[in-house]
Every structure is written in C-alpha cells, then in structure tokens.
Specification:
- By secondary structure, the chain is α/β, with parallel strands linked by helices.
- The chain folds into two domains: 234 residues, Putative cyclase (Glucose Oxidase, domain 1, 3-Layer(bba) Sandwich); 32 residues, no CATH class.
- The strands form five sheets. The protein has a nine-stranded mixed beta sheet with strand order 1-17-15-9-11-13-14-4-16. The chain has a two-stranded antiparallel ribbon with strand order 2-3. It has a two-stranded antiparallel ribbon with strand order 5-6.
- α8 links the parallel β13 and β14.
- The radius of gyration is 20 Å and the shape is globular.
- The two termini are 38 Å apart.
C-alpha cells in the first residue's frame, strides 16, 4: 500500500477537515428527511469514574465537587444574601479520549508527519495542536450505517484479537440491505462493547476490530468516519506484532478519516436499525486531539 503521508490532501494543501468535506448539504438533507418515526437511539456510553482507559497515555477520569451548596450558601450569606441560593459545581480531570469520543486528525502521526503533510514539530505544542485540532471537526449530520459484524457472524461478540476483514463488512452490509455511499459514517458492531464499564480488564486486554485492509475498503468508498463499539476501532493486538495502531495512522494521518470509539451499538442492533440519520457534534476544545461526544441515530 502506498504511503500517502507526504502527499497533500485531495482537498488542498491547507485543508484541516479531511473526510469531513464529504459531509455535504445534500447528505445532510437526505439524512434528516429520512427520519420517519422520530425515534432516537443514543449510541454513547456514560462517562464516570471507573470508565475504562488505556494506560499509560490515558489517565483515569476524576470528578469531584469543587463548590457545594453548603459552601456557596455560607459565602453568599456573608455577602448579605438572605435567600440561601446554593450552587453545586464540579471539577473534572480527564483526557479527551474518555468514554464515547471522536479523534481529531492531529491525534496520530506517521513518523513526524500529521495529516496533509503537516510537520508534527510545527503543530504539536505543550498547550495543544496549532492545527488539526478537534475544533475543525464539522458537525456530522449524515447517514450512519450499522455494520453488525457480530450479528452477521451469528456471534454474541467477536473475540479479542479477531480481525474484521473486508468480507466481514460486505456480509454485514448485505445483511443490512445497504450499499456504502460517499459521506456515510460506518458503525462497526463487534459485540465487544458489552464489557465497557462491566469488565474493564477484559475490555482492555485486547479487542476485535479492523485491520488496514478493512479500513481501506471503507475509505475507498468515501466513508467520512469509522466508529466501533471498542476502545480503538482496530484489532488489538494486531496480527502482525510489529505493527501498533496501523489503522489510526492510516485513517487519521494518511486519509483524514475520523475515528469514533467506545460506541454503544447494542440497542441499535436489537432494533435491527441498519441505517439512520447519524448526528454527532464535537465540543470545540481548541487544539485538543479529541472530544467526548454523544452521538445519536434517528429513524
């Protein structure tokens, strides 16, 4: 496979949006007008202390009450207030890759190069990304496609280290009765998401997922983002033990295709919803490499 990292994007040398350019007005209108029932499937997990995280790059999610009703009422009384209005306010410590989240294009490099031939040394600062940060991810309102790989295989879930191949994806698409179109978003169900927050050790010891050929099959058809019910979208460990996170490198750094991780796809699969209006809006943390999100599918 050719190494694309030193080539400029098909959308020009200054592009920071990548495959988000495929999210056209026409795709948005088609997705919104496809909604008939008004039913919403929330495909995100809750974020909480004890949510799984991949050490050492990721750290635990911590939340504590920084200002409570007791303290704020006391302070306001000292200022002359008589109505005892109490405030509760938390402080959170986290990475932006906790829970259900989307990766910015600057999250991964291929050596010293980021998406669109950006030099990592020029972009990555101690205070965030000067380019390719999460603030450049456009609102995603388009058709989401459920590739129920586990369901098509007749399994409750695939096994850790099991590779999802292009054939798996084709069978899941056939079972779902859809064909991929440019600007669609792929939602890969392996069944592994059942262990999120219920058996974190198992969830993190490895996972089923895509290898580069399956990611390439999706990207060649114009997929704007790839999501999965796993921590990393891609198979862990990779069958080639000399490769680590090749799908991240290929999708983000070479192709400008977003990755959405830790999706909750069980309800969607149980409802046999294989296509619907997918909506995801990433909070614009300037310079961040990702953002927690609450994506939904409407039908």
């Amino acid at each position: 496979m050719p190494n694309l990292i030193h080539s400029h994007s098909q959308w020009g040398p200054t592009d920071q949006v990548g495959a988000g350019n495929l999210l056209t007005v026409e795709k948005r209108i088609a997705a919104l007008t496809s909604v008939r029932q008004g039913r919403i499937y929330d495909v995100s997990h809750e974020i909480f202390m004890g949510a799984p995280y991949m050490a050492p790059n990721q750290t635990p999610f911590l939340m504590s009450i920084f200002g409570s009703w007791r303290d704020t009422i006391k302070r306001r009384r000292k200022l002359g207030a008589t109505n005892d209005a109490g405030t509760n306010l938390e402080r959170i410590e986290m990475t932006t890759h906790v829970g259900t989240h989307i990766d910015a294009l600057g999250h991964f490099s291929n050596g010293d190069r980021l998406y669109n031939n950006n030099a990592a040394a020029d972009v990555v600062t101690d205070w965030g990304l000067d380019r390719l940060g999460i603030e450049h991810v456009p609102p995603m309102i388009t058709r989401g496609l459920l590739f129920d790989v586990a369901g098509a295989a007749g399994s409750a879930h695939l096994s850790a280290g099991q590779t999802v191949t292009p054939d798996h994806l084709k069978r899941a698409a056939d079972a779902g009765g859809f064909a991929v179109e440019p600007g669609d978003i792929a939602l890969i169900r392996t069944g592994w998401g059942r262990y999120y927050g219920t058996d974190n050790a198992r969830y993190l010891e490895g996972e089923p997922g895509l290898d580069v050929p399956a990611a390439k099959w999706l990207i060649d058809q114009g997929i704007a983002a790839i999501g999965a019910d796993t921590m990393a979208v891609e198979v862990l460990p990779n069958p080639d033990r000399g490769l680590m996170m090749p799908v991240h490198r290929f999708a983000l750094a070479e192709c400008g295709v977003y990755l959405i991780e830790n999706l909750a796809l069980e309800e969607l699969a149980a409802g046999r919803v294989h296509a619907g209006c997918f909506i995801l809006l990433a909070t614009k943390f300037r310079g961040a490499t990702g953002a927690p999100v609450r994506p939904v599918v409407m039908v």
